[in-house]
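BUG: 3D viewer hangs when loading the predicted structure for this chain

Environment: internal workstation, default settings.
Expected: structure renders.
Actual: progress bar stalls at 90%.

Input used:
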Amino acid sequence: MITLHINGLPVSVEEGTTLLEAAQFMGFPIPTLCHKEGLSPYGACRLCLVEIGEGPKAKLVSSCTYPAEKGLQVRTASSRVIQARRIILELLIASCPQSKTIQDLASAYGIQRQRFKQEYENCILCGLCVRMCEEQMMAKAIGFRNRGEKRSIGTPFDIQSEDCRRCGACLYICPACELRCTYTEPERAICGGCANIRPPCLEKEGFDDMMCYLSPCAAGEIKKD
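Structure tokens produced before the viewer hung:
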């Protein structure tokens, strides 16, 4: 067994356990888009970032791919982590503004606008559909094509694959397709129609090292009463 500390609490896990699995075991919520049980970890969306280490050597890593290490200090909701997730969500909204999954995450993190050029590409390249097709459906009908800004998902040479059984698993698991936001002002990008209560603790000073990780926020629930 390996013992590490997550948000100041000692956690013992088996060797090979990822930081995401360890945090989820303890009940610490970490947002993910490219991670699903039953599929191999990929680390594409970067939303599961956590901060490891202390002082100037502390760094951000993707918790779904980083293995638990003995004595490691992990923070799942430091100000640095929260800020990084907000920027990532702004970028995701720019690519896929009508994904209700992404819109809800943006609302949960208090994002009211995104500062990046609206692309309306409707694909965040999370790779869920590719891994689902290969690892669960055993088909390999789709995959990644090209690199850099030309990277996309589809069949080789855009020719219909004979291996595709039209099972719909790729559509079922896709965060861009599973639920569509029906906002009516696309130029605003951020819908906010399903916005959650913003945790009051995020507005207070002195919480840089560790911010609210409860879901729903206990302070928000008390404030409502």
